[in-house]
Amino acid sequence: MPHPSQPATSLMERKRRLVEQRIIAAADELFSANGFENVSVTDIAARADVGRTTFFRYFGDKTEVVFAREREVLDSVATLAADGLGAALTTTEAVELLRPVVLEICDRVTTDDAEYERHSRLLALHPELQARAALKAQQIADMLTGALSSSGTEERIAMLAANIALACYQTGLRHAATAGALTDETRAAFEAALMLGRR
Amino acid sequence: MPHPSQPATSLMERKRRLVEQRIIAAADELFSANGFENVSVTDIAARADVGRTTFFRYFGDKTEVVFAREREVLDSVATLAADGLGAALTTTEAVELLRPVVLEICDRVTTDDAEYERHSRLLALHPELQARAALKAQQIADMLTGALSSSGTEERIAMLAANIALACYQTGLRHAATAGALTDETRAAFEAALMLGRR
After folding, report:
1. DSSP label of A10
2. Between chains, do A198 and B195 touch, taking CB under 8 Å as contact?
3. A157 vs A20, A104, B98, B147, CA distance in Å?
4. How many whole angstroms separate alpha carbon A46 and alpha carbon B59?
5. Exposure string (b/e) for B12-47, b if CB count within 10 Å is 16 or more?
6. pLDDT value of position B176
7. Interface predicted TM-score (ipTM) of this complex, two decimals
8. Closest CA relative to residue B131, chosen from A132, A30, A119, A35
């Protein structure tokens, strides 16, 4: 199984992470208390005790804060891509290379049950956030494609495999009633997908 | 292969379609000439020679006009769902039931080469439109899930199959350099997906 990169631990990096976490926590509290549409960047910055300029060094807008976790996931997929995944000769092999990566992503996005459920509730209420989530998912598939093809897998095989891996993840996401179920549901989807050609 | 429903042809319906087409054509021209971000609903309504109120009877906002074709696709998938797709006992059977439906969708979204290419160019320029496109694609997968499960396919099988069908469509979309290639590229992706698990 590919090994995720160690987090950078320089003093500046630690400080950067603390500020980021403070902004995320402030936004989470305000979104839950007042509703996403009634919270401004100014509100979030004030609650996190940072200036608006600082806020915008970390996030493009308030929607980006909602997807902070997905951004981390994209970063870790990028790290995996840099490490190399190995070359697959068939779509089956490529899906098998991606399976542990996607299950690792499932584990990461569900480390905090309460956060996962707040996130799901927020998305259920806001179609524009669902659109952003769908785009992030597609970006993850694109990065998985890149990770495979930069390791020597033919681009056509890489792209189909990455989109099938995304299909398994989306299926897991829809069936997981709780954060804890996501990894198992996604694993079951991979098992079913990898039986497609067998009768 | 499932048969798409015949368009309604009452006088009112024909008139409705003409107005809708006029709005779409006006928006297309203005987006191409001035850029998506510089065109307002008022501009589009004026060019189409309708009032703003009429515009909003047809479209929720200017972004919806960009996805008018996808909305038609969603409508035709809904019609298929109402007709029933047949019950599948395995994910493989379910993917095979969806294949002709998705290939039919490919044919429909590529009937007008120039329109397809304008649409692709517009999306490439605007991340917020890419997000909306990703959401529409996910909605199509949800409707395909519904079409299968209302025909008696187990929901878990239906959802995985629909997402795999979407994976094939997305792969086709990325590989099709021209509108004409979409159906063939998507068909090739289905063939590869239906070989998964064979070595």
Report:
1. -
2. no
3. 37, 22, 21, 29
4. 38
5. eeeeeeebbebbbebbbebbeeeebeebebeebbeb
6. 86
7. 0.80
8. A132
Q: Kindly report the three-state secondary structure assignment for every residue of B179-196.
A: HHHHHHHHHHHHHHHCCC
- The answer to whether the CB atoms of B131 and A131 lie below 8 A apart is yes
Query: What's the pLDDT band for B77 if we cut at 50, 70, 90?
Result: confident
Q: A163 vs B167: CB contact, 8 Å cut-off?
A: yes
B74: closest CA among B150, B135, B156? B135
Q: Residue A199, exposed/middle/buried by CB under 10 A (0-12, 13-18, 19+)?
A: exposed
Task: Kindly give, in sequence order, each residue whose CB lies less than 8 Å from that of residue A191, ignoring residues fewer than 6 positions away.
Answer: none
- Give the integer Cα–Cα distance in Å for B91 and B96: 9
Which residue does chain B place closest to A96, by CA atoms?
Answer: B197
Residue A70's φ and ψ, nearest 5 degrees, are -65, -35
**Which tokens is A34 given?**
């007042």
